[in-house]
Amino acid sequence: MRPITFIYDDLGLLDTASDAVREQLRDLVVMTPSTEFSDEPIVLDSMPSLDHADDFMDRVIAMMTDLHVVFTLSALVGERTDLEAALAEPLTLATLNLAGLRRFHGAFDGEYEWDSDENGLLVDWAADGATVRLHVPDPREGTDFILTAKGPHGDFEWRSFQELGVAL
């Protein structure tokens, strides 16, 4: 089952959000009181710091699991009320691009595997010729992560939140 990425409006701003904001959040399912989970989701409720790469790595790893993920709106935009500006920042765009990849890439309809050893963490999704792979190498290698997506629409690779934070 494809994992779903939810948004929880802890700031109370989505009811009055512009169409542009709604379009930017299109890959996130708005969480409501009627939303039910068969398993506990991963809840991401704090904004990652640009000073701490590990904060964003936690986000990347969570988005590559087979569990549902719930973001609070404040985790995406901080305490800002200018949603359009906040959603245009590279760190937020990288998160939204991960949500889009998770929602639409065919690999997420397939098999999920992960492994960890002295070489780092390796997460694989594969289905019908489509693959997504996350490699988080040993920190001594100097690379935060390598995320690759292969499928009928081409092959892509990202190595930083800056690379993920551009329009896909």
In short:
Helix content is 27%, strand content 28%. The longest helix is centred in the middle third of the chain and has 15 residues, at 90-104.
Structure report:
With 168 residues, the chain is of the alpha/beta class. It has a single domain, classed as Glycosyl hydrolase fold (Single Sheet), CATH 2.20.220.10. The protein contains 6 helices and 9 strands. The chain has helices at residues 19-24, 53-63, 73-77, 83-87, 90-104, 161-164, and strands at residues 5-8, 29-30, 42-44, 69-72, 111-117, 120-127, 130-137, 146-151, 154-158. α1 (19-24) links the parallel β1 and β2. The radius of gyration is 16 Å and the shape is globular. The two termini are 24 Å apart.
Q: What is the CA–CA distance across the termini?
A: 24 Å
CATH hierarchy: architecture: Single Sheet
Query: Helical residue percent?
Result: 25-40%
- Looking at the structure, the CATH topology is Glycosyl hydrolase fold
Strand order of the biggest β-sheet: 5-6-7-8-9
Inertia-based shape: globular
Spans of 5+ residues with little confidence (pLDDT < 50)? Answer: none
The quaternary state of the protein chains shown equals single chain
Q: Give the number of helices.
A: 6
What is the CATH homologous superfamily assignment? alpha-Amylases
Can you summarize the main beta sheet? 5 strands, antiparallel
Percent of residues in beta strands?
Answer: 25-35%
CATH class: Mainly Beta
Write down the secondary-structure element order: EHEEHEHHHEEEEEH
Number of E-state strands: 9
Kindly give the count of domains.
Answer: 1
Radius of gyration, Cα only, in angstroms?
16 Å
Would you tell me the structural class of the helices and strands? alpha/beta
Q: What is the average per-residue confidence, as pLDDT, rounded to a whole number?
A: 87
